[in-house]
Amino acid sequence: MICSACFAQDGKKAKYIFLFVGDGMGIAHVTLTEAYLADKAGKTGSEYLSFSKFPYTGFVTTYSASHFTTCSSASGTAFSTGYKTKNHMLGIAPDSITKLKSVSYKLKEKGFKIGVSSNVAVNHATPAAFYANNISRTAYYEIGLQLWQSGFDFFGGGSFMQDKGKAKDMQSLEEITGNNGYAVTRGVKEINDISANVSKVVAFFNENDEIQNLSYSINRKQGEAKLSDILEAEIKFLKAREDRGFFIMAEGGIIDWCAHDNDAAGTVKEVIDLSEAVQVAVDFYNEHPDETLIIVTADHETGGITLARTGGGKQGFASLDGQAASVGVLDKENGRAICDSINNAAGVGFSTKGHTGIVVPLYAIGAGAELFTGKFDNTDIPRKIMKAAGFEF
């Protein structure tokens, strides 16, 4: 719940900044999830998510320097550095040479503690956009080496992709990181028990070393970690060590993967997971309303979701609960048919298995949130963040 009486007044400087990225999360993903929750509650309409009732909203354009429809690395570069680049490039200008500086480095220089987290691998495109520079988003090993070089304070999520390189013949990124000033933990208990003397940490929350991301929400087993668990640990770690504030980028990365699979049930469960993680930040905001800024947005839209696919008849969004697992886990031969049947029963359609160029929503609350209204470009996001914190970009 948001403390409505605690809305920060215009002019307050943001000391604690949260930037949530629902990878692939368009307005239709949010609408579908709210309709699903309302249907579950026995009503027609919308059941608000933690962030959809924020007092400030906007629409964000996402095109890249090379394509109207962006990829995650180009969009991540834009809202991290404030500059466009070509699809598949990461923190590098379109000239393929110039390195671009992330807002996280700018805030680090101002004394902020920095946290970068995701429910997918820590060297995947969106988290990497906040600490790395590479001409290719798939150069996972080289990107992973830049993690410890950043000097950032907290990294949390799934473990390294290509931990020992593409050919598995390189020194482990996990080992290198641990040898260069970082404590490396695994699981919720290890990070919660970490010593107060530890200043920098990489916290892995995936249960299986062979699978770098956390479990999909729809497949999650009891006791497995989710994005809100990462965020709780991240806030606890950074707050105990900050003196000038902190900046956290937290990504719900599996929304995108479910939408690529045209999996409505999986998509809804991932948006709910993101909402629960945002609620952790809202709880923190309620304790520090004059100093906290929360932004929730997306890097692009995936799947081209439409509702009322069945032509206007009464929809049963709660029928999505009839799907027991993600498409990839369902029976290999019948999984797609099962998912499509459930999508149809809920009246949910998809126009593509790729990204779209549709503007994405942005929701904001707190100190400087009034800067994030109207329609603007994704390159404006880091500029507005710096302004909210009281600095020049």
Q: What's the layout of helices and strands?
A:
Blueprint: E1 16-22, H1 27-40, E2 56-61, H2 72-81, H3 103-109, E3 113-121, H4 125-128, H5 140-150, E4 154-158, H6 173-178, E5 183-186, H7 187-192, E6 201-204, H8 227-239, E7 246-252, H9 254-260, H10 264-287, E8 292-297, E9 301-302, E10 305-307, H11 335-346, E11 348-350, E12 355-356, E13 360-366, E14 374-377, H12 380-388
Parallel strand pairs: 1-7, 1-8, 2-14, 3-4, 3-7, 4-6, 5-6
Antiparallel strand pairs: 2-13, 8-13, 9-12, 10-11
Description of the molecule:
- There is one protein chain.
- This protein has 393 residues and is of the alpha/beta class.
- The protein has twelve helices and 14 strands.
- The strands form three sheets. The chain has a ten-stranded mixed β-sheet, sandwiched between helices. It has a two-stranded antiparallel ribbon with strand order 9-12.
- β5, α7 and β6 form a beta-alpha-beta unit.
- α1 crosses α10 and α8 packs parallel to α10.
- The longest helix is centred in the last third of the chain and has 24 residues.
- The model has no long low-confidence stretch (mean pLDDT 94).
Q: Please estimate the helix content.
A: 25-40%
Q: Given the structure, what is the number of helices?
A: 12
| Strand residue percentage | 15-25%
What class would the helix/strand composition place it in? alpha/beta
* Main beta-sheet annotation: 10 strands, mixed
- The CATH architecture name reads 3-Layer(aba) Sandwich
**Fold-level CATH name:** Alkaline Phosphatase, subunit A
Q: What is the overall silhouette? A: globular
Extended strand count: 14
Uncertain regions: pLDDT < 50 for 5+ in a row? none
The SSE order reads EHEHHEHHEHEHEHEHHEEEHEEEEH
Q: How many separate domains? A: 1
Whole-Å distance between the termini? 33 Å
Briefly, what CATH class? Alpha Beta
Radius of gyration: 20 Å
Provide the spatial order of strands within the biggest beta sheet: 5-6-4-3-7-1-8-13-2-14
What do we call the CATH homologous superfamily?
A: Alkaline Phosphatase, subunit A
| Arithmetic mean pLDDT | 94
